[in-house]
Amino acid sequence: MDYAQQALSQLPVSLVEQAKQFFDGQDPAHDWQHNLRVIGLCERIGGEESADMEVLRPAALLHDIGRAEERQTGECHAEISARLAPALLAAYGYDQDVVGRIQQVILAHRFRKERPPASLEDKILFDADKLDSIGAIGIGRAFAYSGVIGQPIASDDPGQHTPLKEYEWKLCRIQERLLTATARRIARERHSFMVRFFEQWKKEMQGVL
Predict the structure, then answer these.
(1) In whole angstroms, what is the distance from residue 131 CA to residue 169 CA?
(2) 46-62: pLDDT as tens digits
(3) Which of 84, 87, 148, 151 pairs as cysteine with 27 (C-beta 3.0–4.6 A)?
(4) pTM higher than the cut 0.90
(5) In the CATH hierarchy, which fold is given to the domain comprising 133-209?
(6) What is the CA radius of gyration of the chain?
(7) Considering only CA atoms, which of 164, 168, 173 is closest in space to residue 191?
């Protein structure tokens, strides 16, 4: 089943097209394909966890539309995305209460101490976004983003960030932060694959294999 396409089929076509335009020129770690994967994971997890999909689907669609503006201004992309969402949703009959809940879900996907995920829909979008950072996809994104910002894929300099350091400092801990049972179940295989990959990576870097 293509969960992303199932989700998109339940959203207004023109809203999807408008959202897609915000991803022109985005780096490969945060592009439209990343957005589609998060939408698909939200559809899968939301279905299993009995979420309010009227809120979750548009929140997933719009959660990263502020990234281009973030690059220009430095403002948090979640706040930009939440601010842009009402104008985009206005033409499609979403009432103010639903729009407000969509904004909250978008805001909560970027975890902050003052704004932790609270509702089920908050937790699912948070989990879906984090799941896309681990496993084979997560590895690909880590290496792709290193290339975008000019980092080496390996270095003898202990102060130089690399995909291996990204894994050791952040990615290996993501499964512990997930909030829903479905996401934790999905994470197990993704995490295991990632561990195996970087074990092999270190051996090859040392010439052991």
Answers:
(1) 16
(2) 999 999 999 999 999 99
(3) 148
(4) yes
(5) Methane Monooxygenase Hydroxylase; Chain G, domain 1 (1.20.58)
(6) 18
(7) 173
